[in-house]
């Protein structure tokens, strides 16, 4: 019995022990899960390794002349691991020895806190063993270079605890210049422009970085990284000089005229390259910025610039020639109950060329109604053959506006549709559509696809070249082209041309004005709500077109100028003058033949040349007898002054030859004779709009080209 009791006691004791142990285990498990759960979860996370994607360096967008239009610059986030073994070794001796000096350096560099504030911040983080503590965010590369040499930081990551994370920040160095077209690369937002269209090429291929999760953030771990593959570079067709000129001219007009929004586009005639595209919209604060792509993305009723398409249709069908006569009926006529008016009343019989030159709405509405009202599809087919109903095909497909060309099948079609379409209403097209049509005329009938990217490069090596693409080989017959060009030239050069105010140039401009009535806030065209869209589309030099340009500006009710020539034509002229003076005149007037490179020829005032030679300690001979003007030849560091031929015509009403003069002398001479001078370019005069030795009228404009 005693043995049995002893065995039972042992069994009971063991059982009780097992029960107590089980209770302890369950209690401890409950305690760990419920009380210490957060602590152990964090500890698990600190030991957790994972790969994070590393963005590749985004490619750069360049202009065709080699300037950066959009690029990435490095910025850096500065973290500190205050629990790093090297930093806390020997009771934190490194940190304590360098903290004061480091705080002073940080305060002097960033100038956002005092040295004491930086010291207190770092001591607090050190005392609580902060891991991956964010000390400074998005510092520049220049700041980063200085930071690397600071006390403690210069000891390296393991001893200092400093961890520098680099990333890219996208910037547009020229800020406003073609901003909407180039676009922006933005995280967590939709990109626009070329940044969006070529995003897959620009962004490259992401790499990987091994990290450990510590104290709520990921800390990089050495080893196991996969380097990213950098993005490719995009070479755009944009020319920064032409773009700057275009942007400035458009801005100047819009500010002075209180316009709502506008666009100006310059296309290389032979290729379809867009050399410049400016888009400006007025903001709530009164400033203008590139807010929308009005040239490519906004389809509107074009107004009288559309008459080119109507005239081309009539000529192709041989219903008229430019010498055919049309009765404009005083500039006012009713079509099926609706009245169409010309901007200037009182005109009756005109040739088609004169009607185009004067931009008669009645003439073109009447001709279109006469020949196409019974066969509207014939007219619509022409418009479709001009690609006015198709997308332009430009690189910015996501931003492109969709055109609308009506057909008899549309519910809104009526008897008045044809006469209204004929002079630029009841259809919607973008300025780029019209620019393509005018460019096709300038390009002898060949319609080019517009494009904004000329090549793609990787590490400086071209991997793809974009070549010009022909959309329509021949948009109309040569006979029609000849007549169209004559009419477009007459708009500027003709006695009654609507754009005659811009004809005083050293080169020929051909084009067409447009002044379309639009409605404010979709309230119709009622009196009091009218605002005007002013357009001018044309090409230059007209005898050998190099560039085609469209300027379309939406005026406001407060705008003082409303007509196409006054508003958009003026912008066109300013841009074309600058382009011609900088690019085209050098080719047209470049000297040929072999000459002595030491010999130079100039014109100027006698006393000024004497001062120049004296200052330069150069000998000279004055071979002229009298007069204030001298032609100067410098050869082998010796000057010879003679009587210039200009002296024969410095009075009366005969235009002197000022070629070779500096601008100051030319302006002085010409304005003293009673001429009004405008000048383009820099250097010496190489051409003048009024030929030498020809008569002029007082206050007549004369344009000078300098090179």
**What is the C-alpha radius of gyration, as a whole number of Å?**
38 Å
Q: What's the helix count?
A: 21
Largest sheet: 7 strands, mixed
Counted beta strands: 31
Roughly how much helix do the residues carry, as a percent range? Answer: 25-40%
In CATH terms, the superfamily of the largest domain is DD-peptidase/beta-lactamase superfamily
Stretches where pLDDT is under 50 for at least 5 consecutive residues are: 587-599
Overall body shape: flat
How many domains in all? 4
CATH class of the largest domain: Alpha Beta
- Per DSSP, what share of the residues sits in E-state strands of 2 or more residues? 15-25%
**Termini gap:** 130 Å
CATH architecture of the largest domain: 3-Layer(aba) Sandwich
Helix- and strand-based class?
Answer: alpha+beta
- Average pLDDT reading: 84
CATH topology of the largest domain: Beta-lactamase
List the defining traits of the structure above.
single chain; 707 residues; 35% helix; 4 domains; alpha+beta; 24% strand; Penicillin-binding protein 2a (Domain 2); Beta-lactamase; six-stranded antiparallel beta sheet
Summarize it:
The chain has 707 residues and is α+β, with helices and mostly antiparallel strands. The protein has 21 helices and 31 strands. It folds into four domains: 2-35; 52-236, Penicillin-binding protein 2a (Domain 2) (Alpha-Beta Complex), CATH 3.90.1310; 241-588, 3-Layer(aba) Sandwich (Beta-lactamase), CATH 3.40.710; 600-706, Trypsin Inhibitor V, Chain A (2-Layer Sandwich).
């Amino acid at each position: 019995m005693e043995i049995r009791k002893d065995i039972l006691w042992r069994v009971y004791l063991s059982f009780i022990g097992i029960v107590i142990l089980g209770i302890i285990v369950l209690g401890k498990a409950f305690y760990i899960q419920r009380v210490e759960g957060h602590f152990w979860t964090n500890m698990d996370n600190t030991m957790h390794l994972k790969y994070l994607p590393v963005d590749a360096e985004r490619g750069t967008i360049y202009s065709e002349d080699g300037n950066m239009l959009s690029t990435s610059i490095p910025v850096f986030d500065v973290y500190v691991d205050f629990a790093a073994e090297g930093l806390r070794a020997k009771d934190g001796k490194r940190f304590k020895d360098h903290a004061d000096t480091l705080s002073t350096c940080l305060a002097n560099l960033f100038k956002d806190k005092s040295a004491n504030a930086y010291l207190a911040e770092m001591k607090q983080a050190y005392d609580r063993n902060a891991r991956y503590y964010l000390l400074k965010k998005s510092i520049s590369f220049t700041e980063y270079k200085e930071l690397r040499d600071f006390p403690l930081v210069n000891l390296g990551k393991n001893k200092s605890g400093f961890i520098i994370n680099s990333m890219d920040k996208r910037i547009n160095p020229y800020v406003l210049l073609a901003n909407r077209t180039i676009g922006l690369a933005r995280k967590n937002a939709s990109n626009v422009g070329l940044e969006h269209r070529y995003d897959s090429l620009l962004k490259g291929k992401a790499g990987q970085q091994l990290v450990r999760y510590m104290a709520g953030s990921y800390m990089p771990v050495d080893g196991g990284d996969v380097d990213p593959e950098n993005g490719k570079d995009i070479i755009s067709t944009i020319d920064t000089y032409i773009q700057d000129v275009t942007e400035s001219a458009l801005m100047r007009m819009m500010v002075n005229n209180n316009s709502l929004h506008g666009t100006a586009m310059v296309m290389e005639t032979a290729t379809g390259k867009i050399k410049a595209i400016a888009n400006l919209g007025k903001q709530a604060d009164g400033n203008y910025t590139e807010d929308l792509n009005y040239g490519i993305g906004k389809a509107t009723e074009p107004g009288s610039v559309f008459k080119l398409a109507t005239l081309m249709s009539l000529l192709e069908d041989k219903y008229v020639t430019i010498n055919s006569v049309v009765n404009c009926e005083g500039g006012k006529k009713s079509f099926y109950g609706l009245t169409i008016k010309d901007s200037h009343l009182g005109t009756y019989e005109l040739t088609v060329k004169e009607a185009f030159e004067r931009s008669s709405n009645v003439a073109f509405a009447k001709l279109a109604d006469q020949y196409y009202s019974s066969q509207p599809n014939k007219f619509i087919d022409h418009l479709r053959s001009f690609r006015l109903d198709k997308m332009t095909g430009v690189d910015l497909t996501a931003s492109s506006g969709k055109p609308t060309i009506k057909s008899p099948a549309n519910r809104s079609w009526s008897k008045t549709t044809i006469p209204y379409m004929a002079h630029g209403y009841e259809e919607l097209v973008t300025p780029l559509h019209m620019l393509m049509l005018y460019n096709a005329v300038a390009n002898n009938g060949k319609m080019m696809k517009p494009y904004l990217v000329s090549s793609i490069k990787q590490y400086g090596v071209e991997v793809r070249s974009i070549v010009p693409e022909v959309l329509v080989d021949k948009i109309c017959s040569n006979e029609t082209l000849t007549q169209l060009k004559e009419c477009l030239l007459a708009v500027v050069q003709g006695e009654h041309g609507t754009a005659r105010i811009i004809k005083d140039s050293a080169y020929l401009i051909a084009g067409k004005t447009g002044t379309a009535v639009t409605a404010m806030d979709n309230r119709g065209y009622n009196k009091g709500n009218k605002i005007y869209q002013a357009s001018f589309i044309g090409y230059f030099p007209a005898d050998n077109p190099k560039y085609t340009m469209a300027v379309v500006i939406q005026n406001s009710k407060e705008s003082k100028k409303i007509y196409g020539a006054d508003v958009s034509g003026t912008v066109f002229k300013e841009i074309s003058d600058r382009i011609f003076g900088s690019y085209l005149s050098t080719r047209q007037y470049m000297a040929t033949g072999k000459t002595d490179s030491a010999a130079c020829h100039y014109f100027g005032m006698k006393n000024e040349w004497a001062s120049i030679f004296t200052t330069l300690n150069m000998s000279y001979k004055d071979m002229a007898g009298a007069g204030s003007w001298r032609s100067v030849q410098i050869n082998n560091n010796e000057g010879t002054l003679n009587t210039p031929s200009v002296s024969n015509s410095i009075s009366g009403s005969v235009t002197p030859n000022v070629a070779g003069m500096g601008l100051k002398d030319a302006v002085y001479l010409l304005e003293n004779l009673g001429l009004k001078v405008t000048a383009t370019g820099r250097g010496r005069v190489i051409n003048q709009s009024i030929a030498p030795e020809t008569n002029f009228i007082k206050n007549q404009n004369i344009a000078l080209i300098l090179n």
